[in-house]
Amino acid sequence: MVENSQAKLKLVLAFGAVYIIWGSTYLAIRYAVETIPPFLMMGIRSVIAGIVLYLWSKIQKRAEIRQQHFVPLFIIGISFFLFGHGLLAWAQQRVPSGLAAVLIASESLWIFIIETIFIRDTRVRSKGIVGLIIGFIGIIYLIASTEGINTSNADFTASLAIILSSLFWSGGAVYSRIAKLPSSPFLSAGVELIIGGIFLLIAAYFAGEMNFIRLSTISLRSVLGLGYLIVFGSVITFSAYVWLLRHTSATRISTHTYVNPIIAIVLGWIVADESLTLQLFIATTLIIISVYLVLNDQLKDTKSSSI
User: Fold this and answer.
1) Among 8-12, 136-140, 204-208, where is mean pLDDT lowest?
2) DSSP states of the chain as a string?
3) Does residue 9 have a pLDDT over 50?
4) Which pLDDT value is given to residue 305?
């Protein structure tokens, strides 16, 4: 009974982290990229957080990296961080944090499609098909109306970059379900962060970001934003995310896209004075309805793993 209660508590805390903390990271990213170039910022975030988790896993001495783990760790690290986080950070120089979170909500749709095609542990029914159609209508509408949302910040190319970011993250999430990884989620998360962070720093170098960074130009708000992303966004929440991927389906975990946009939009409105427009409200409503239909359809056929 006690073990069962502890397992449920871990599940609740892990879902709470990906629901709430990740919803707040969009605003933190916006502040961080104000004075720190995007690939460099995300690279620093990933490498530092990865080292912390790697050292923690070594202290625990619960797992080791074997030869069969290297390729999966590279694939996941690059998918999650070089493309997932890198494209998102680049795009958030141009779009409001709330809009970015709504576009990232397409993650649930991509995961549903990828799991259905490649893992085939779920069936697509009429409700799921309707949900997918509604979701893509919402995404297309939101991208098409970005200029009307905020002409000073929104950018059509940036919106597409966020969709691509979501697609890469979704592919990595589904692949991690079947990949051969170290038994410790802390070790896996740490190494994936370090690998992704190194490639982000390489991308920053080739993008010329090193030529424009000056310590004197970095604001305190950007430093605090980066610190929040390292501690809360990566060390705490990514560890919870990796742990969840081992105990339930990627589609079920992607229910965090219900909550993330709401938190991001509200925080952006209250803290950063971002606009709440009719276009954003319509697109958010369509995408949330879509996610609900898709997940409600899929969850009837998918059972979680034992905790």
Assistant:
1) 136-140
2) -HHHHHHHHHHHHHHHIIIIIHHHHHHHHHHHTTTS-HHHHHHHHHHHHHHHHHHHHHHHT-----GGGHHHHHHHHIIIIIIIIHHHHHHTTTS-HHHHHHHHTTHHHHHHHHIIIII--S---HHHHHHHHHHHHHHHHHHHTHHHH-TTT--HHHHHHHHHHHHHHHHHHHHHHHS---S-HHHHHHHHHHHHHHHHHHHHHHTTGGGT--GGG--HHHHHHHHHIIIIIIIIHHHHHHHHHTTS-HHHHTTHHHHHHHHHHHHHHHHS-----HHHHHHHHHHHHHHHHHHHHHHTT--PPP-
3) yes
4) 38
Q: 31-57: per-residue pLDDT in tens? A: 999 999 999 999 999 999 999 999 998
